[in-house]
Amino acid sequence: KAGVTQTPRYLIKTRGQQVTLSCSPISGHRSVSWYQQTPGQGLQFLFEYFSETQRNKGNFPGRFSGRQFSNSRSEMNVSTLELGDSALYLCASSLGLDGSYEQYFGPGTRLTVT
Amino acid sequence: AQKITQTQPGMFVQEKEAVTLDCTYDTSDPSYGLFWYKQPSSGEMIFLIYQGSYDQQNATEGRYSLNFQKARKSANLVISASQLGDSAMYFCAMREIDRGSTLGRLYFGRGTQLTVWP
Questions:
Q1: C-alpha–C-alpha distance, residues A114 and A11, integer Å
Q2: Which of A8, A28, A22, A34 is nearest to A73 (CA)?
Q3: Cα separation, B85 vs A24, whole angstroms
Q4: Which residue among A1, A37, B23, B45 is least crowded, i.e. fewest CB within 10 A of its CB?
């Protein structure tokens, strides 16, 4: 069974631009979560989607948004990029929202904002 | 307050020895799950082991075991017979099950960098 895939793996953008990151969950998984990882802040929860609905959101500005499609694939969008948005963005999928389900992570998208 | 605390920024262990990585957590939710992940320098988070709050026995997965002490809110990871390939960052995480407002969210600690030397 294929794992979680994320595209692109690496991205370089300039301040003010916008970016879209994509995540394909493990087949059969309906929950997709997004996390931002930086050396300073560690791993921070962005949001979680289940059945095309955002179920939970972390403390990030409105520039960060996402969506989930009917096939459970998810996209994350960051508008008006700032230098501080440079980070590793990790996507994770799980079977459901129940906390007993493991979350499996993708390889991440490393975003650099210049 | 920090949900997950990992007090060891770095740990060193010799190959074939066992090592314990510490993790304490904070929650008032009676139902929760505890997870350990490994993150090599490549960046991917690799799921290692899971312990449910109602599980009576400590979880084990191959060389990994979780020393779960519920009263102390402690969930330490034990790696037996360390290998050079175990060198990585290790994260402890928790997911609350019953708290609807944060359902699904994983809380992570700051991680412990493990170095295995020959």
A1: 11
A2: A22
A3: 28
A4: A1
Closest residue in chain B to residue A50, using alpha carbons only? B104
Check if B107 contacts A (Cβ < 8 Å). Answer: yes
Task: Tell me which residue of A25, A41, A107 sits closest to A33, measured CA to CA.
Answer: A25
When CB atoms are compared, the residue of A48, A106, A110 closest to B104 is: A48
Query: B116 CA to chain A: closest CA distance, Å?
Result: 22
Mean pLDDT value of segment A65-74:
96
Tracing tokens 């007993």 back to the chain, one arrives at A100
CA distance B16 to A68: 44
Distances (CA, A) of A2 to A92, A104, A108: 13, 11, 15
CB contact (8 A) between residue A102 and residue B97:
no
User: Nearest-CA residue of chain A relative to B112?
Assistant: A42
Tokens 């994509």 found at: A22
Which stretches of chain B drop beneath a pLDDT of 70? 1, 98-104
Which is it for the CA torsion B10, B14, B15, B19, positive or negative? negative
Q: Which two tokens stand for residue A81?
A: 């990029």
B95 touches chain A (CB under 8 A): yes
Give A82-91 pLDDT, tens digit per residue.
999 999 999 9
